[in-house]
């Protein structure tokens, strides 16, 4: 789960930064000065990397046993500037708490009985 968290966090930061650049730099350049080069470059990159964010969020959510509602909210957070960082913060907090709980209470090994008659 630790590696899935790292993958998710990297994608959340990358997608979040691209979305901020797209909305705070690219959109004004396009609609005020008529230059759409930043929108084109960051928009395409954001779109593709957003899909990778969804995949990493689903992977992490499956491992952390999140509800579908939580996964949907995390996915939607990637479409609103700055909210990606908030979602990443709470996701990281939840996963780190689960990792600490798992470390404090390790699962007992399963004892398999071998019955020679069967």
UniProtKB/TrEMBL annotation:
It is a multi-pass membrane protein. Residues 7-93 form the DUF3817 domain. Pfam families: DUF3817. The keyword Lyase does not apply. The keyword Signal does not apply. Keywords: Cell membrane, Membrane, Transmembrane, Transmembrane helix. The chain crosses the membrane at residues 12-33, 39-61, 68-87. InterPro entries: DUF3817_TM. It is found in: Cell membrane. Its main location: membrane. It comes from the Bacteria. One of its GO terms (cellular component) is plasma membrane. NCBIfam families: integ_memb_HG. This is Integral membrane protein. It comes from Microlunatus sagamiharensis. The lineage of its organism: Bacteria, Bacillati, Actinomycetota, Actinomycetes, Propionibacteriales.
């Amino acid at each position: 789960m630790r590696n899935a968290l790292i993958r998710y966090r990297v994608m959340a930061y990358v997608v979040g930064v691209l979305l901020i650049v797209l909305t705070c730099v690219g959109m004004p350049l396009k609609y005020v000065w008529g230059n759409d080069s930043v929108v084109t470059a960051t928009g395409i990159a954001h779109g593709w990397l957003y899909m990778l964010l969804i995949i990493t969020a689903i992977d992490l959510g499956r491992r952390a046993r999140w509800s579908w509602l939580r996964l949907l909210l995390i996915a939607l957070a990637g479409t609103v500037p700055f909210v990606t960082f908030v979602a990443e913060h709470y996701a990281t907090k939840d996963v780190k708490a689960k990792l600490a709980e798992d470390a404090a209470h390790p699962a007992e090994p399963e004892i398999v009985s071998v019955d020679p008659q069967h």
